[in-house]
Amino acid sequence: xxxxxxxxxxxxxxxxxxxxxxxxxxxxxxxxxxxxxxxxxxxxxxxxxxxxxxxxxxxxxxxxxxxxxxxxxxxxxxxxxxxxxxxxxxxxxxxxxxxxxxxxxxxxxxxxxxxxxxxxxxxxxxxxxxxxxxxxxxxxxxxxxxxxxxxxxxxxxxxxxxxxxxxxxxxxxxxxxxxxxxxxxxxxxxxxxxxxxxxxxxxxxxxxxxxxxxxxxxxxxxxxxxxxxxxxxxxxxxxxxxxxxxxxxxxxxxxxxxxxxxxxxxxxxxxxxxx
Length: 275
Hints:
Layout: H1 12-17, E1 24-28, H2 32-38, E2 44-47, H3 51-54, H4 66-79, E3 84-88, H5 98-110, E4 116-120, H6 126-133, E5 139-144, H7 150-153, H8 163-179, E6 183-187, H9 191-200, E7 205-208, E8 216-219, H10 221-224, H11 242-258
Parallel strand pairs: 1-2, 1-8, 2-3, 3-4, 4-5, 5-6, 6-7, 7-8
Helix pairs in contact: 2-4, 4-5, 5-6, 6-8, 8-9
């Protein structure tokens, strides 16, 4: 029997141990080709329900299902070897009861291959976090601006901008930490609040539109690659313009087809020598 050396995937305990030691770099991934390219560079890949908007051109994240999330997660896991893969719990898959949450989270781990799940919600969902963690499912909490709460929040608006709102978000983050979450995503909240939460919690905070002081950062990959259109979120930065490269490649291909310079016989099968 031959023994093959293989890079070990980043584990949830390793992410927790990064607190205070080094920054955690995370990105979203929904399909195998992108996940394969990101894998070596980052510590964590989030199979986010944001694929509803990014991959399916939906207006929000609310239409994703557990089956869809499991399929995307499985593709990302199969394409990667290094990054810890966390899958989003889609809207309606965990709010009804802890038992419902466990059944669906178990699907994301067993069928989707994820190493843990992310769920959105404040103190009301802390019991669900505890229920999952006690049954072997790592949980990444998500507080602040929560896309699944778009209807109650009145849109995608920055959160924690008043003293009362900041206190509530701090309490939300503390509740999940006490329930056993291995980390918490802080999205779209005031910078001083994100800094305060990071200092107060014993678990890593992953910021997106939060603060440089967070223990890690996550962005939607398509935003940093220039694949999300002209509008770039305030909290994001375009690190490359892959969109322009893809557009030019498509133009060059189409021109080659029309000018009959592609394909050539070298691209064909069964070509006779006299040809």
